[in-house]
Amino acid sequence: MKFYTGAAKAARSYLEKDHSRADDYYLAEGSGLADRFEATPARVVGRGPMDGDTYERWVAGYDVDTGAAKGRLLPDGGKRKPVRFVEVIVNGPKTWSLAAALHPEVGAAYDAAQARAAREVIGWVAQHGTTRVGPKGRQVQVPVESLEAAAIRHYTSRAGDPHRHLHLQFNARVFAQAKW
Asked: 140: which DSSP letter?
């Protein structure tokens, strides 16, 4: 698990830095940089692909549909570095990636299994996630009512060898007690 506290632009840059290999390395059947999901304790809904600009706004804490800030946002470069997202990886043994690279039907099945696993993880976090609310010094832990996640699909490692995996990022801006 990785806690990302950097700038939104840096997160985008990290994903796009090998842009010349984007067709080989980056996500979602060529439809964007990341797929966005919204989850409540009851369901997970795919909200479609995000391009680089949309992903950067998402990381920064803005509603990508309305442009509104999700709560009070701290600026990049300030004294406090807010957590932007928490990331986990969905993958399997290297031999599965090798088999997927050699056999398209194995690749399709493996991609589908990883997508199902990602939805299950998102749903579990939505059901069990909590956040703190209230004034400093008197905060209480409450259940999350809604959260967003991004899935970034990679087919190779940074070294270029077959390694299918998903970067699953949970935005730190969550909806609880009727507000972001």
From this structure: E
The enclosing H or E element of 49 equals strand 44-50
Structure tokens at 49: 């692909």
% of the chain at pLDDT higher than 90: 71
pLDDT at 82 over 90: no
Within a domain: 178: no
Asked if the structure places residue 177 within a domain, the reply is no
The pTM score is 0.88
**Number of structural domains the chain divides into:** 1
Q: What is the pLDDT of residue 23?
A: 41
Long-range contacts of residues 30-33, Cβ cutoff 8 Å, at least 24 apart? 33/152
Token couple for 40: 């409540």
The helix (run of H) or strand (run of E) holding residue 102 is: helix 94-102
| Beta-ladder partners of 153 | 166
